[in-house]
Amino acid sequence: MPRLCQPARWPLVCRLICIVTVAIVVGCWLPPGFAADVFVAADGNDTADSSAQKPVATLRRALDRVREIRIAAGDRQSPIVVEVADGRHELADTLVLGPADSGTPAAPTVIRAAAAARPVISGGRRITGWELSKSGHWLAHLPTVADGQWQFSQLFVNGQRRFRPVLPAVGWYTIAAAVPPSPAAEGKGHDGFGFSAGDIRSDWSNIGDVEVVAVHGWAMSRMRIAEIGPGEGAGGEAQAAGGTVRFTGRTMAPTSWGEFPAGNRYCIENVGESVGTPGSWYLDRGKGILTYCPLPGETLAAAEVIAPRLDQLVRLEGDSASGRLVEHVLFEGLTFAHGNWTLPPAGQSFPQADINVGGAISATGVRHVAFVDCRVRHVGRYAIEFGGGCSECTVERCDLADLGGGGVLIGTSGGAGSWGEEAAVPRTVERITIRDTTIRHGGRIHSAGVGVWIGHATHCTVEHCDIYDFTYTGVSVGWIWGYRESRTHHIRIASNRIHHLGHGVLSDMGGVYTLGVSPGTVVEGNVIHDIASHNYGGWGLYTDEGSTGIVMRGNLVYRTSSGGFHQHYGRDNLIENNVFAAARDWQLQRSRVEDHTSFRFERNIVWWDSDTPLVNGDWKTGLKLRSNCYFNAAGPVRFPGDSDLAGWQQTGQDLGSIVSDPRFTNPAAGDFTLPPDSPVFALGWQPIDPTQAGPRQPPPIDDLAPVPSIWPERRQTP
Questions:
Q1: Which residue of 24, 216, 460, 693 sits 20 to 30 Å from the alpha carbon of 227, by its own alpha carbon?
Q2: DSSP secondary structure string, 427-439?
């Protein structure tokens, strides 16, 4: 794909072309020179005429003015531009755009920041009227909380996330005993477990607001307490003078990944009696009192404390079934911040990737919608969601940071064989592009949130992005388990930096993860490194159940906990011309053997410097290996069956392969460049240029404060 356009340098002919096609090729954003039609300022007045001299106060009124201008102008041939002044623009309600807010190819609706401005579209409210308690804590009385109109589970102080109190203060509790599900949950899921003495207390105040966060391997459940009773361990498990906790809801499945087995980790959040650590806070909903324990140096006079009020900041609602879409809309230069998420009465439990929490910005039934040079931060969900009926949409040069969930959701979770309704028919989602965007610091509430999730979607692209600091997967593609028909195909994951994932919190993850049949899908040119799972499954490239017809080529993968590549099971995948280096447990893994060709593994370099094995699993049948280079700087390379290369080749595998030092420049420092006379070039190796991965023009990342994490493996003092 071409580099981003440079508007200030465009010749006239290019500008004219982009004027006509701005809503079609939305990656080329609106060139300068178009005067704004509608002006918005935080100190404006919605009864004003929306001129530069008399701006309106709200985006809702600004969009109403756009509708009026469009009706009056008839067949307008230039964009209708809303210009937003600097400052914090507090939304009274979610900003909803419907078909009537659409532009046209020649006259798109443009909502952009004023020159040199960085306006913040906020779903939060600044907390004022603080009092200082005798203990040094700050107290604020919030009547709208006390009367049930407002609740929140996030707080941001001076632009940084703060957390509610967490028990234990260090590490995790462990489940003492599994217990049978209650009659209401039997056969559907699990709704309780046994705990050790002192870990959960029935005398905690506001116990219905206490949240139990339990790990299931590759996901977490966040549950509300319904009751606490005596111990009732299942299966003969002993329980040391503790008790049983029952939840108001259940997990989504009665199978192993929905259980609460003995030994699994959990922590407890939002116990009022435990507030006191600097940087922690507690909301007593019944009394409407917010308590904040300030960090050293924070003062009542100078602190900006914001609590989110709106779950969604922007919602674009079209109807693809009737053809009434929201289309030809461009958002440019805006910051969207302070999105709420609160735990539902029945808790939150989802088997993988926490995709059911949705996005702070949500789109359904839209076409030719773009977010360019925007920021999303301090939200409790995913940042942006493109749901059913979305097509030809772009996120470009954006920065998505400090996210309760993941970065971008593309597609739907419905359809047979997925976790949606069996009878659901997903509306087409296609041609969504995420480009030159930084997606970072996610999973702050929903630990299984991923950088980019793509499900039941076609012809989508994630390219030149920088995705890092999540506790689960970087990019996830697919979402049909096994070989059933899939709507996902022709997905391109290319030239991204995907790194520092997992952090030892969850298991069973990948830098890039695929699932199901996906012909035409290509994963190429990515640099993936530092993937660390809790106890198993920290892979770089991971083709999970049923992955079929996928090409993974030209990727650099290093420093993973469980191998650079793993295939659970699948068919006819091609893994070629990749570097897999310096994995911890083993370098390559295969889990299930089937009676077809699972994958071809050709012209790859596998390098490591430890006494760990080359492979894990059965690598003898149902796969084809050839022309690879293997080298262990710490000792000999042993192939399946504990054979050397010659013995291994007698089985018909790895013909044309070599055991030889590829002569990387400095692998310890992550420099895997090769000299011209490296032996790998005789194998047909094609050079990989890792400098091409990541944003070509990085988005303007500002001085976002360090983003702390609640999970014990990553817990930081703000």
A1: 216
A2: PP-EEEEEES-EE
Confidence at 22, pLDDT banded by 50, 70, 90: very low
DSSP per residue over 484-509, as a string?
Answer: S--S-B--EEES-EEEEE-TTS--SE
DSSP three-state, residue 179: coil
Is the whole model's pTM more than 0.85, yes or no?
Answer: yes
As a whole number of angstroms, the distance between CA 338 and CA 341 comes to: 10
Residues 249 and 233: their CA atoms lie apart, in Å, by 20
What is the per-residue pLDDT for 715? Answer: 53
Give the DSSP per-residue string, 99-154. GGG---SSS-EEEEEPTT---EEESEEE----EE-TTS-EEEE-HHHHTTS---S-
Label residue 706 by pLDDT band (50, 70, 90).
confident
- pLDDT given for residue 428 in this prediction: 82
Where are the domains positioned within the chain?
A: 124-164+275-307, 173-273
Coil vs helix vs strand at 274? helix
Rounded to 5°, the CA angle 328-330-331 comes to: 155
Give yes or no for a contact between 491 and 464, defined as CB atoms under 8 angstroms apart. no
Do the beta carbons of residue 542 and residue 570 sit within 8 Å? no
Q: What is the mean pLDDT of the chain?
A: 92
Q: Which amino acid is at 12?
A: L
Residue type, 340: N
194 and 178 in contact (C-beta within 8 Å)? yes
Average pLDDT over residues 44-69: 98
Could you give the CA distance from residue 153 to residue 601 in angstroms, rounded to a whole number?
Answer: 47
Residues with Cβ within 8 Å of 663's Cβ and at least 6 positions away in sequence, in order, are 674, 675, 678, 679
Asked whether residue 717 carries a pLDDT value surpassing 70, the answer given is no
Q: For residue 255, what are the contacts with CB-CB under 8 A and spacing of at least 6?
A: none
Of 76, 75, 85, give the one whose Cα is nearest residue 38.
Answer: 85
